[in-house]
Amino acid sequence: MTQKKILYGQVVTPLRVTAAYLTVENGKITGISTTKPILDATTEFFDYGAQYIFPGFIDGHVHCFSNPDEGFAATSVGAAVGGVTTFVDMPYDRPKPINTAARFNAKKAQIKGQTIVDIALWGTIPKQDGVKEIPGLIAAGAAAFKMSTFETDPERFPKISDVDIYDALTKLRKTGIVPAFHSENNEMIVDLIARYQQAGATYPRAHMETRPIIVETTAVQELCEIAKWTGSKLHIVHVSAPETVDLIDAYRQQGVAVTCETCYQYLVLDIHDLEKMGPRAKMNPPLREPETVAGLWQRLIAGKIDYVTSDHVPWAASDKAKGQANIFEAPSGLPGIELVAPVLYDAGVAQGRLSPVQFSQLMATHVAQRFNFSQKGSIELGKDADFAILDPQAQFTITDAGLHTKTNAITPLAGRTLQGKVTATWVRGQRVYADDQVLAPFTYGDFVPGQGLKAGASNEG
């Protein structure tokens, strides 16, 4: 017989925060009550008192293998430390992207035995003749499809042509699977970087100057137009400017099913951090002016940004140092899967900008809805017992050495003290992390398959 577990704390439901008792059986939430249930010898009780019990956080934007030395195991530990119970790993792996069913299945097979949290996987398509790979990837379990209008690498991270984007969105529109995009204007960026390099303008701020806001808005507008005329869903990742959010919102008003995310770094860092720290603070899109950050917060509070992610890409100091003299030589990205929720809580809830319910929507509920993770994302009867326990009174200071990365990654947030700390993480009714200790074996985490309608994927287009 499976042991019944009861948790008490400040439970964050979809509507309110309530001092309540949660009953957990067979990995599911079977009871929510403001009255203490009867405890017997078979019941295990966890009293979290004044701590929040949030639904387990979901990070929809993670790169375990952009730096191939990182992998699932270390990332899953970082996830648990930050209260992330499910993450969705991006397809731009080194050396080969996940753009065929065979590669997807091989990656999926790595999950079992390599994670303490649950993992879903993005798929992508090849640069040439890639649309034909979509049905096989959906059948293999892809949760969503990631494509790009900017070319980082012609094979691993290619720019997809407008024609293939149109065909892909047409193919995906009846599947329930969401296409998402890295949205930057490739032609403008390539030309601007060439001009700056030729002029020897390789200082840190040049990274932002060669990726002005217009490279984001022009790419997003074209994608929204394609989504409008194909009738497809659309998701825009790592939005860095309020102008982009306003553009997306205008298309929503026209009936386009477009959503967007921003990342925690665009809410707590700005161009002055890039100027001060150089490669340590380099990411794509780049950090922007303080007034841009303020504009993002306004849209986030107003509910115009659907959720917040980490865009987790860990790089060591030795990797980042390659761009010390030339910012364009440094790899882009920073570690974040264990920081995204605590940073957003500190900057949002602790500072009075967001309510706990809004925070829960941004970190769990809206993410689950966009990926069709029907058993995750909120504390409701019958759903997975995924919880993030957060102590609002606890503080901790971010350090490079304290990050749970295999690659000894560095962060531009080192030295920053946060209000609010995850003290325990539950996945499907099991504590996987508590009191700074990993409690579950790496065989515990599981694969979360995509919920697309396979028949629609095969027949559409």
From TrEMBL:
User: In the UniProt record, which is one GO cellular component term?
Assistant: cytoplasm
The alphabetized UniProt keywords are: Zinc
GO terms assigned for molecular function: allantoinase activity
Chain ranges of the Amidohydrolase-related domain: 52-432
Top-rank taxon, per record: Bacteria
**Which InterPro entries does the entry link to?**
Amidohydro-rel (IPR006680), DHOase/Allantoinase_Hydrolase (IPR050138), Metal-dep_hydrolase_composite (IPR011059), Metal_Hydrolase (IPR032466)
Record SUPFAM superfamilies:
Composite domain of metallo-dependent hydrolases, Metallo-dependent hydrolases
* Gene Ontology BP, a term: purine nucleobase catabolic process
Q: Does the keyword Zinc apply?
A: yes
User: Would you identify the family this protein belongs to, as annotated?
Assistant: Belongs to the metallo-dependent hydrolases superfamily. Hydantoinase/dihydropyrimidinase family.
- What is the designated name of this protein? Allantoinase
Q: Give the organism, scientific name.
A: Loigolactobacillus bifermentans DSM 20003
Per the UniProt record, the lineage of the source organism begins with: Bacteria, Bacillati, Bacillota, Bacilli, Lactobacillales
